[in-house]
Amino acid sequence: MQSDLFSPDHAEVAGMGIQKQGGKMARVSMGGGDLMARAGSMVAYQGDLRFEALGSGGIGNMIRQRLTGEGVPLMKVSGRGDLFLANAASDVHLIDLDGTDGLTINGANVLAFDSSLSYRIARVSGAAGFASNAGLFNCEFTGRGRIAITTEGTPVVLNVDQPTYADPQAAVAWSASLQTGLTSNDTFNIGTLMGRSTGERYTLSFTGRGFVIVQPSELPPGGLVAGTGGGEQAGQGGMGGVLGGLLGGR
């Protein structure tokens, strides 16, 4: 049998841990440890792997998820084998944390991360009094390990050396050291100019020193509601919020 599908371009990549498999998939070679991944993101696996649904991860986060509509269920994967992850054919990017700087990520853009990392749900500074279902809760990662994120299209990485602003749904991730807030305009609906899906009258603001990753889309990967799929025993559809804050802190 002959086909360009059998060329080296389509072969499995090498290496342990989280690796990019092409531009829209991640391959994780597991040797007995644990991995945290987005529920429903498994597209294939080989070997002896086990999948455990984590839901919203604790009563506090469960209450917050119900109030904000921003829960994205996680699954814990353990065992030995090769795992392949994807989310609606979105672009995959890898980020390595070295234990010095934290990273804040929109939960809708998290694909998988090493279990060595710590994470918590944090509200955007200055968000009190604004609608709670519009991306104002995000996930802050600290420690040492690798994270796989997804973006809708090729992102831009903005160096924050002056006041910077972004649509809440287009802002994928940013340095945890940045000061964040919300800016609004009472004269006209800024949502008609920035972002077409929410119509909100505010944008995220960033000050300090660091970076912001912005995708060319106002929707989270896969559209308004992140679906679940695959044969793993973790998909619990219907829990993803419009913007998704990653619930499941430890």
Describe the overall structure.
By secondary structure, the protein is mainly β. The protein has a single domain (4-214), classed as 4-Layer Sandwich (Double-stranded beta-helix). The protein is 4% helix and 44% strand. Strands 1, 2, 3, 4, 5, 7 and 10 form a seven-stranded antiparallel beta sheet that branches. A six-stranded antiparallel beta sheet has the order 8-9-6-13-16-11, with no helix packed on it. The protein has a three-stranded antiparallel beta sheet with strand order 12-15-14, with no helix packed on it. The chain is globular, with a radius of gyration of 18 Å. The relative contact order is 0.23. Mean pLDDT is 77; it is low at 56-60 and 222-250. This is AIM24 family protein. It holds the Pfam family AIM24. InterPro entries: AIM24, AIM24_sf, Trp_RNA-bd_attenuator-like_dom.
CATH superfamily descriptor: Mitochondrial biogenesis AIM24
Decide which structural class fits the backbone: mainly beta
N-end to C-end Cα span:
49 Å
Morphology call? globular
- Estimate the mean pLDDT confidence: 77
- How many discrete structural domains? 1
Q: What's the total count of β strands?
A: 16
Radius of gyration: 18 Å
Q: In CATH, what is the class?
A: Alpha Beta
